Amino acid sequence: MCLGIPALIVAIADEARMLATAETLGARREVNIVLLAEDGAPLSDCIGMWVLVHVGFAVARIDEDEARITLDLFRQIGEAEAEIEPMRLLG
Fold first, then answer.
1. Alpha-carbon distances of 6 from 15, 16, 61, 64, 87, rounded to whole Å
2. pTM
3. In this structure, are residues 61 and 31 in contact, taking their beta carbons and an 8 Å threshold?
4. In angstroms, what CA-CA distances link 23 with 35, 38, 40, 84?
5. d(CA 63, CA 68)
6. Which three-class secondary structure state does DSSP give residue 80?
7. CA-closest candidate to residue 52, choices 73, 66, 38, 37
8. 49: closest CA among 59, 61, 41?
9. pLDDT per residue over 28-40, tens digit each?
């Protein structure tokens, strides 16, 4: 199964390599934006864009509302896992 993670492009990290800094749930990492950059447009146009990140590439633009809904679901899954883990240990 493939999983894409919503992220917000917050900066351009390396223009020559088409790398941007993306943030997801407080974590930042570099992602390649070659699939989303428009010919002739400055890469800085991508700052503020919500994207779907998969294996280090921003593969699609997504709507901010869709990103927030998905991130809320990830938070809920994390909270559920935190509650279930002690039960597994009692096993």
1. 22, 24, 9, 9, 30
2. 0.84
3. no
4. 18, 21, 25, 27
5. 9
6. helix
7. 66
8. 61
9. 999 999 999 989 9
